[in-house]
């Protein structure tokens, strides 16, 4: 019977309920991986979970971007960095 680790269970956990929860979990995973706290198998599981969280966050951002574009319609204009500093008037 295979042994189940906490990191392995995290890798198969359901997606978070919100963008903020996903980012928080991702930050915790990255911190643990950077600290070298995880053995190799757990690191691979954490990487897999992190990849799932990144995809979830990207999808959430894309959904919000689509909603903003729909709400704003033709009012959206490309951002021009040179306009941001020209408030000398």
TrEMBL record:
Please provide the record's keywords in A-Z order.
Cytoplasm, Exonuclease, Hydrolase, Nuclease
Subcellular localization is given as: Cytoplasm
Q: Which domain of life is it from?
A: Bacteria
Q: Which GO terms describe its biological process?
A: DNA catabolic process
Query: EC number(s) on record?
Result: 3.1.11.6
List the InterPro entries hit by this protein, alphabetically: Exonuc_VII_S (IPR003761), Exonuc_VII_ssu_sf (IPR037004)
Catalytic activity from the UniProt record: Exonucleolytic cleavage in either 5'- to 3'- or 3'- to 5'-direction to yield nucleoside 5'-phosphates
- According to UniProt, the name of this protein is Exodeoxyribonuclease 7 small subunit
């Amino acid at each position: 019977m295979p042994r189940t680790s906490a990191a392995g269970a995290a890798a198969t956990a359901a997606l978070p309920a919100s963008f903020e929860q996903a980012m928080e979990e991702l930050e915790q995973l990255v911190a643990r991986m950077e600290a070298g706290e995880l053995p190799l198998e757990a690191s691979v599981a954490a990487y897999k979970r992190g990849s799932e969280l990144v995809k979830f966050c990207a999808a959430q951002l894309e959904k919000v971007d689509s909603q903003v574009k729909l709400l704003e319609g033709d009012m959206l204009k490309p951002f021009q960095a040179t306009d941001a500093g020209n408030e000398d008037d």
